[in-house]
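ARCHIVE CARD
Drawer: 12
Card no.: 0347
Subject: one protein chain, sequence and derived structure
Cross-reference: see card 0346
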Amino acid sequence: MVENAWMPCWSGDGRWLYFRSLADPSGNIQKLPIDGGSPVLVRSEAGAGQPAVLADGSGLYYVMPLRATVFGVWGADHEIRCARPEDGPFETIGHISGGRVAIAPIMLHITLSPDGRWLAVPLSDGATSNIWVLPTGGGPMTPITDFGERSVVIARNVSWSQDSQHVYAAVTETETDIVLFRRFIF
């Protein structure tokens, strides 16, 4: 069991569980052998999180906040990084503006396609959310959904089909009302 952990993902061979440790306030990425043993530190960069591991174990994708603000990582821009090997030097493969992070920075997550070619990322597009994909080999992010003016929220992980041809997500539509409360009794 791992306490104080967030955003787990499995290694391609199913022998390791990767996660962002919340036990250390600065955050880092660790992995835990499923056969027992202690967690192993993979990335010690403060704030590193949301790991996604290539099926063959040759690389690790993760999200890194670029700067802290008065409100911590709220509103901070983020990079999507790839380290090959997982504890080696990183390469930045994508950039996400802080204003595009839906709900909260800790909810920013990336999901690697089974074929290792794409990372899916739910992002805010004005009053709605859409799913964008980033090619792992380099190139710009492109949207794969367009909810237009609908008030849609995608606040949890997305999943890929085994053939990497389809993306699944829990999507909710929200509407709001403005209500006037006339009397307050204190």
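Annotation on reverse: Residues 71 and 173 are 28 Å apart (CA to CA). The chain has a mean pLDDT of 86.
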